[in-house]
Amino acid sequence: MRCILILSFAILVGTASGQRPNVVLVVVDDLGWADLTCQGSTYFQTPHIDRLASSGMRFTDAYAACAVCSPTRAAVLTGRYPARLGLTDWMRPSWRRAGKNPQENPTEYVGGANRKLLCPPNPFWMETDEVTIAEMLRGAGYATCHIGKWHLGHTERAPTGQGFTENFGGWDFGQPPSYFDPYKNQRIEGIPTLKPRKAGEYLTDREGDEAAAFIQRNKDRPFFLYLAHYAVHTPIQAKPDLTAHYESRPKTRQKNAKYAAMVHSVDDAMGKVTAALEACGVQDRTYVIFTSDNGGLLGPTHNAPLRSGKGFPYEGGVRVPLIVKGPGIARQSTSSAIATSVDYFPTILDLAGLPRTEGHDLDGVSLAAHVKTNAPVQRDAVFWHFPHYRGRNVSPYSIVRSGKFKLIKRYEGPTFELFNLAEDLGEMTDLSKKRPALVKQLDERLVTHLAKVGAKLPRDNLDYRAPVAPNPVPDPALPRVLILGDSISIGYTKEVKSILEKEAMVVRPTRNNGKNAENCQGTNHGVRRVDAWLGSHGGKWDVIHFNFGLHDLKRVKADTGKNSNDPNDPYQAAPDVYKKQLTEIVAKLKKTGAKLIFATTTPVPSGVRPYRATDDPKTYNQIAREIMKNRGIEVNDLFAFAEPRLENLQKKADVHFKPKGSKALARRVARAVRRALHRP
Questions:
Q1: What mean pLDDT, rounded, does the chain reach?
Q2: Sign of CA dihedral 646, 647, 653, 658
Q3: Can you name the CATH fold of 386-460?
Q4: pLDDT tens digits along 606-647
Q5: 210: exposed, middle or buried (C-beta count within 10 Å: 0-12, 13-18, 19+)?
Q6: For residue 489, which of 63, 119, 226, 638 sits 20 to 30 Å off, Cα-Cα?
Q7: Paired strand residues for 384
């Protein structure tokens, strides 16, 4: 869908005090839809979560974006369907040996003094160029913190590379080595981002303590807390006293006392969060969202009345609890509106009174008006796409739910199953043979959606990507140089690395696990991504060579933000916006303490597409020069160097350079970096 700038009256009223509301997002791992007292359980005891539900709105028809964890977590953070992200299965950890089919290879880990990371053998991580809700909130002045399970990548893909200033426990683990401090097992020596604190301490208790401490530290400023519990994922380990408590309770169909004790600990952590909000006096300006990343795992839990569980396309695999509580939300309210993981990003933006980003496609719809005024949720259908899973005998599938009907489309075996969820919540009666016209209609909607988001199908053979080398570890004896810039700088970066090979460690932001250089684009992109770029590769820099301008001065469609060839269309970032945003980026670069070098925008020949005026580089470069002069930053004038040599160096009717042109620019850049390295 097209994102538009919107601030509702209700949101403006909610932030009229000048202090933006806080947001606490709690995502439990593998928590089943019926595993809470407020969801109807008579075995589990969850008084704190029940109190949360009675203080806000509880959804009966809420869904995870996928039936397994990593895709849902990426959808929660980006507001985009897993199929659009290309992240459609759980991410295998970095310590699993690369191979053609990791499911068939034994898990190996290099521990002890020789501990090292091994790259993931498949494509299921979240790319760093995706915009997260943490990045949006951090850019608006929020303190941001991730606690618990991440499972979307490590190093630059870890939480601190995706908008979170603090990270307690987030790594690429799908489950903890152990729930007891020091959180290790025979293969894995602890969680790298969570230092041992007290021998025998229970992990979920620790997560609750870290959450309460973060709230206390940031009570006087807006904050975003993402509490993503490792529980109740395997290993099924619980505190002995709670296990004994549930062993003594009357037995129901759910008889796993250890699992029940794990749910109880999650509830205790929710109690710690609630108590901290109240003790700090911020509960009345804090929104709390509580949910799960997928349905309950069959074995530890029992998902009745829903069919099946985690990994499967039935309601037991994708339907999850959802509770939203906060200012303006009616107490003890219940909603049957369909909600899903991709909705949290736009909902949080609206609750915080923040605008959407032009040209950035979101798949979710905002629930803000619904939870405050019970306004209808504006959507026609929700979708799932799970084409690569190879566990528990689950064949690839896609799903569409529209109204009360749900269509499951399989890519192996019988093709369709159709259920009326209003009359058959347990999905026991397949209507596909009786309603062929409805099957055809829903299938057409599903196919259209999959094409729209660029979904990969099983025949596309994307099950596993060949492993690539992880980002290099810098030689500590060499100075460290970061190059930021557009595609022109991508063209000269490799040559700069070669020229300075023995003098400096030269790196730039990368995509696809280090395989491709990231285009830093214009200042619109830069203000969102600069923190992640600066935090990559260890986050310490001696020299930063950077450039912004060539994307800012191109023309774009006013309604979509897409590239335009019409000179009457607006700039991607008009000169005044460019000045403001470049100033903000420079301020962050200055804080690193690195020596900074700004490269001017190279010339624009006539006839380029998308449209760029040939005189605009001079205007934007002048703005940049003034900013750099005021801050004492050296300017590497690539414009002045290239302009008299364009016919020899630059492609015709193209902003990009010939190979010899990129090499000439590289020599110019290398000289500027070398001067900075040797300058006192």
A1: 87
A2: negative
A3: Arylsulfatase, C-terminal domain (3.30.1120)
A4: 999 999 999 999 999 999 999 999 999 999 999 988 888 888
A5: buried
A6: 119
A7: 399
SS3 label, residue 301: strand
Residue 673, CA atoms < 13 Å, CB-side half-sphere: 29
* Residue carrying the six token digits 């009616």: 330
Confidence class for position 10, pLDDT limits 50, 70, 90: very low
Q: Which of 523, 658, 528, 415 is nearest to 138 (CA)?
A: 528
Give the Cα separation of 345 and 327 in Å (integer): 18
> Has residue 648 got a pLDDT over 90?
no
What is the pLDDT, as a whole number, of residue 65? 98
Rounded CA-CA distance 600/627 in Å is: 12
Amino acid at 51: R
Q: Where are the beta strands (DSSP E) in 39-123?
A: 57-59, 62-63
What is residue 388's predicted lDDT score, i.e. its pLDDT? Answer: 63
What average pLDDT score do residues 469-494 get? 78
Q: Which fold has domain 9-82+125-353+366-377?
A: Alkaline Phosphatase, subunit A (3.40.720)
**Do residues 121 and 99 touch, judged by C-beta distance below 8 A?**
yes
What is the pLDDT, as a whole number, of residue 680? 65
Q: pLDDT category, 512, cuts 50, 70, 90?
A: low
DSSP secondary structure, 21-33, as one string? PEEEEEEESS--T
What's 555's DSSP letter? B
Has residue 121 got a pLDDT over 80? no
pLDDT for the residue 252: 57
Q: Closest by alpha carbon to 321, among 535, 547, 29?
A: 29
pLDDT band at 598 (very low <50, low <70, confident <90, very high): very high
- Terminal C-alpha separation, the chain: 52
Q: For the residues of 75-91, what is the DSSP string, one character each? A: HHHHSS-HHHHT--SPP
Whether the Cβ atoms of residue 484 and residue 509 lie closer than 8 Å to each other: yes
| Residue type, position 464, single letter | Y
Instruction: Tell me which residues are annotated as active site.
Output: 69, 151
Strands 286-292 and 22-28: parallel
Domain ranges (residues) in the chain: 9-82+125-353+366-377, 386-460, 480-678
* 480-678 carries CATH number 3.40.50.2300: no
Phi, psi angle pair for 563, to nearest 5°: -55, 145
C-alpha 40/C-alpha 50 separation (Å) is 11
Name beta bridge partners: 517: 510
C-alpha to C-alpha distance for 120 and 109, rounded to whole angstroms: 13
Q: Select from 20, 69, 78 the least CA-distant residue to 386.
A: 69
With vertex at residue 614, the alpha carbon angle to CA 613 and CA 617, rounded to the nearest 5 degrees, is 90
Q: What is the pTM of this model?
A: 0.67
Among 93, 89, 69, 370, smallest CA distance to 229 is for 69
* Cβ atoms 157, 238 nearer than 8 A: no
Residue 84: phi and psi, rounded to 5, are: -70, -35
pLDDT at 309 over 60: yes
Per-residue pLDDT at 319 = 98
Q: Which two tokens stand for residue 350?
A: 């609206």
